[in-house]
Design goal:
The protein is mainly β. Helix content is about 0%, strand content about 50%.
Length: about 190
């Protein structure tokens, strides 16, 4: 994922000493400031990437997008110099961030404002949003329609920028909580 070009590139790593890009997708909205990426396969063994895209500061709209890199998107032959090539595509996304309607206290409201990290837990993406101090779960059971299924907010999550999930617990690192590692249960 590239935050500078709002894109996701697919790199062939079959030969680790000869890496090369075999495809990319750019989306100036749904991949804006892409920060984190993780791959998963659906029940039909189709490969997808889940991308956390923060959005531009100060708006930080925040999208969690699904990028299709399944077998149907790959080609190889004379048109590709006989090298495998892929045409990834953003197939869906979920966004939950908007400006407050309160003119006396302008702020962002939602659960994915400034989403900066994503991990997997079963058929769910777990996303940390640094601008809104939250961790949310997103169902990936229907890749065409991912949906927010749960969320927790906590001041210690302000500036959350990294997370991993192990044994149904999300471990979240925050920029502003230098001496803490926040544990969040992601049991459904």
């Amino acid at each position: 994922a590239s935050s500078a070009s709002d894109s996701v590139a697919v790199v062939d790593a079959v030969e680790p000493d000869r890496l090369h890009v075999v495809g990319a997708v750019q989306d100036r909205t749904r991949l804006r400031q892409a920060r984190s990426i993780v791959g998963f396969t659906d029940d039909s063994d189709n490969l997808y990437m889940v991308v956390a895209a923060r959005g531009d500061f100060p708006r930080s709209e925040g999208y969690v997008s699904i990028v299709d890199v399944s077998a149907a998107r790959w080609s190889q032959g004379p048109g590709t110099s006989h090298r495998p090539r892929v045409q990834p595509a953003v197939v869906s996304s979920v966004r939950e961030c908007r400006p407050s309607t309160d003119p006396t206290f302008p702020r962002l409201v939602g659960r994915l404002c400034g989403v900066s990290a994503v991990a997997l837990h079963g058929a769910f993406a777990v996303a940390a949003a640094e601008r809104i101090a939250s961790v949310s779960t997103i169902s990936l059971q229907d890749v065409a329609r991912p949906r927010l299924t749960g969320s927790v907010r906590d001041a210690r999550l302000d500036g959350a920028h990294q997370l991993t999930v192990y044994n149904a617990v999300a471990y979240v690192a925050s920029r502003w909580c230098a001496d803490c590692l926040v544990r969040v249960s992601v049991v459904q």
